[in-house]
Design goal:
The chain is mainly alpha-helical. Helices cover 70% and strands 0% of the residues. The protein has helices at 4-27, 35-42, 46-52, 56-76, 88-100, 102-111, 121-135, 141-164, 171-181, 188-194, 199-207. This is TetR family transcriptional regulator.
């Protein structure tokens, strides 16, 4: 078994290569980045790169997981947001993270039409969308997935536009834009008004479909 020191050295080398990739993304188009250029910037040889990654796409996938962990840690921190889900302020730490790594996420969103964080799909569905829909009286799995798809696709497209424009609009301004685009059923106002009400009562109040 590899000892702890060697494990740490392996990880340090990987971080150095990931940092090299981020720097290169700021300087040139993604299509012009090669394994050789990454190795040269990170001061490692090609065999070292291939000991960590099969190719550049796999490297991007690993980097995305690392950045996702960084984002989740930001929300889990005692200083993280404690705001209502989908409120303006709840989006700001996320947008700050995206802006800090905008060159990376521009590539990710340029090759994917789904949620910018691939690992965010299940938590978004099961911890956010599903509870809000069920609270509003929406119990059909198909309908819940429609709301997920709508939010996921719409959010990704406007986020890509923000990135393509160099994040010119501030995080606070763009967070307001996002909240204005959120479907009524998922909005903080609906969450507040439906809290404590049984699903069918919420449906009668126009916050969800009639299930009777």
């Amino acid at each position: 078994m590899v000892n702890t020191k060697n494990n740490q050295r392996f990880r340090d080398t990987e971080v150095r290569m990931e940092a090299a990739m981020l720097h290169l993304l700021k300087e040139r188009e993604f299509s012009k980045i090669s394994v050789s250029s990454i190795c040269k910037r990170a001061e490692v040889n090609r065999s070292t790169f291939y000991a960590h990654f099969c190719d550049i796409p796999e490297m991007l996938s690993v980097m995305e997981d690392t950045l996702a962990d960084e984002l989740l840690a930001r929300y889990a921190s005692p200083k993280g947001p404690r705001n209502q889900m989908f409120s303006r302020d709840s989006f700001i730490p996320f947008l700050q993270h995206i802006k800090e790594h905008q060159y990376f996420y521009r590539i990710i969103l340029g090759t994917r039409k789904a949620f910018p964080l691939e690992t965010g799909y299940e938590p978004l569905l099961n911890m956010v969308i599903r509870p809000l829909c069920e609270r509003a009286g929406i119990e059909s799995e198909d309908d819940i997935l429609y709301y997920l798809t709508y939010f996921e696709a719409g959010f990704s497209v406007i986020l890509k536009r923000w990135l393509d424009q160099g994040c010119k609009k501030s995080e606070e301004e763009f967070a307001s834009t996002i909240t204005n685009c959120i479907p009524a059923i998922l909005s903080p106002k609906t969450q507040a008004s439906s809290a404590g009400k049984p699903p069918k009562q919420q449906a009668r109040n126009g916050q969800g479909p009639q299930n009777e």
